[in-house]
Amino acid sequence: MPEIRGFEGGDAVDLLRELVRTPSVNPQLEADGAGEADIARLTARWLSGWGFEVEWREPEPGRPSVLARHGSGGPTLLLNGHLDTVGVAGMTVAPFDAYEADGRLHGRGACDMKAGVAALLAAARDLVRRGHRGTLVVALTADEEHASLGMADCVAAGLRADAAVVCEPTSLAVMPAHKGFVWIDAEVRGRAAHGSRPDVGIDAIRNAARYLVALDALDEALRADEPHPLLGHGSWHAGTITGGAAASVYPERCSVSLERRTLPGETAADVVSEFRAVAADLRVRAPDSDVRIEVSLERPGTEVSSDHPLVTGLLEAARAEGVDPRVEAMTAWVDAAFLNEAGTPAVCFGPGSIEQAHSADEWVETREVTRCAAILERFAAAFLET
Predict the structure, then answer these.
(1) pTM, to two decimals
(2) Residue 9 reports pLDDT greater than 80
(3) What does each C-alpha distance from 124 to 81, 128, 143, 227 come to in angstroms?
(4) How many CB atoms lie within 10 A of CB 322?
(5) Exposed, middle or buried, 255 (CB in 10 Å: 0-12/13-18/19+)?
(6) What's the DSSP call for residue 113?
(7) Is the distance from CB of 317 to CB of 379 less than 8 angstroms?
(8) CA torsion, points 40, 42, 44, 47, in degrees to nearest 10?
(9) Which of 200, 231, 234, 242 holds its CA 20 to 30 A away from the CA of 179?
(10) Rounded Cα gap, residues 258 and 288, in angstroms
(11) Residues 6+ apart with CB under 8 A from 159
(12) Which residue in 170, 143, 121 sits closest to 24, CA to CA?
C-alpha cells in the first residue's frame, strides 16, 4: 500500500503522485483491472488522519466508495471525485509510475481524474487545519467510468448538500451544464431467404441503412431548435451495426446501436418518440421495413444557473488566485447529474483538459493541480461562512 509522507505533509501534487501510483482501473473495462479497493483504503486513511469521520460504502463487493465528513450544522459543501480509471492498453507511458517532465505528471488517471481528487483532498485537509464553519463532505466514488455505481449508491442512501463541486478536468473553467445521453437499440427485422429469391427475402441490413439515412431529418430538426446557451444543439450518431449470416443469404436481422446526446430537460421518452416517428415514416415509404426501438441506458442532461452562488463563488475564487474566470460547457456526461437530479446543485471544476482524459500519454500540468487546490480552499472557506 503506498504511503504519503505523513498525514500532515505534502501538497496536492504529492497526493497526486501517490494516487497515480495506486492502480484503480475499472474491472468492468479491463479484465484484470485492480478496481477501487486499494485507492479507497489509501484515501480513507488520509481523511481519517486529517480528522474526518469516514464511511466506507460498497455497492458491489470489491467496489468501494469513501464518504467523509468534517464539521456540523451550517451550510454543507460536497467535494466529489471518482476513484476509478479506464484501462491501460495502448498507453505510451508507464501507467503507474507518475513520471514527471516539463511541468507535467503522466500516468493513467493523472488527468481523469486523480488530479481533481488530489486537489480536493489537499483543499479539504487545509480547510480542516485552518478551521471552517458548516459541514464539509468529501465523496470519492467508484465506477464512474462504467455505470456510476458509487454515486448512484451514495445518492440513494441520502447524500445531499447545499452545493457540490465535481472535480472533473475542466482546465479550471467552471462548467455548470452538460448534456445527457440515451442509448437506443434499433432492431431491424427482415426475412431470411436464399440470395436468389428476392421475391421471398427481406433485407434487414438494407432497411437498417434506409433507417439511418432517414434519421438525417432528425439532424435537421435538432439544428432548427433554439440552441442552449452553453451546450448548443442535441445530436445523434450510430455507434455499432451488426447483422447478416452470409453473402448469399438475405439477412433476417440487423441491430444498430444509436446514441442521442440530450439537452437538460429532454427525456428518454422524448428521444424514443423521435426515433419511432422516423421509423413510422420510413414504413409508409418502404412497407417492408420493420424497425423496433428500445432504450438500453439513459442519463439526464443537467445544468445549474450561471448566476447561482456556486458558479459566481468559484469564479470569484479563481479570479482571486490569478486564474481567468471562465464559464464553459462540459462536453462529457459526469456524475454531477445524479446530484442535480437529487436536489444538490453541482458544477464541474477541476485541473486538466478533457482532451487528455483516457489518452495514451495521459498527463496533467502540476501547476494547475496546485492552483485548483487553492481555488477550492478559498471558495469552500467563503461558502461555508454563509
Answers:
(1) 0.93
(2) no
(3) 13, 6, 23, 38
(4) 9
(5) middle
(6) I
(7) yes
(8) -140
(9) 242
(10) 22
(11) 67, 78, 137, 139, 339, 342, 344
(12) 143
Which amino acid makes up residue 263?
Answer: L
For the chain, what is the mean pLDDT? 96
What is the rounded distance in angstroms from the CA atom of residue 63 to the CA atom of residue 232? 36
Amino acid (one-letter) located at 215: L
For residue 154, what is its C-alpha cell? 451514495
The span from the CA of 149 to the CA of 57, in Å, is 11
> Grid coordinates standing for 155?
445518492
pLDDT of residue 3: 46
| Strands, sheet with 100-101, edge to edge from the N-terminal-most edge strand | 100-101, 104-106, 363-365
Q: Is 365 left (phi over 0), alpha (psi -120 to 50) or beta?
A: beta
The per-residue DSSP string of 288-319 comes to: T--EEEEEEEEE--EE--TTSHHHHHHHHHHH
What is the β-pairing status of strands 100-101 and 177-178? unpaired
Mean pLDDT of 218-232: 95
